[in-house]
Amino acid sequence: MNWIAVQPYYKIHRVVDGIEQRTEEQWRKMYLYEDRIVTKYRVFPLNQVFDLSYRMMGGEGGFLYLHTRQGVYSYTVKEDPRTFIEAFKQL
What we know:
10% helix; four-stranded antiparallel sheet; 7 strands
């Protein structure tokens, strides 16, 4: 089955090497299918997703929120997720 929409997001990962600490951005993708939303580590059946929302933070990017039966999951995005949210609402 092919995906309907895709939304890039990222997670901040802290790496400690000896006495050095650095942060890395791990880029991932969220896929919208007819019956589910898939992230790197989770699958959300659409019948358990109530809504998607977006909140801008600062001048660049923000948070994409998945409102589900299990709670609210947040994903950090740099690109505006409006097309992803609209595709979800059309389903």
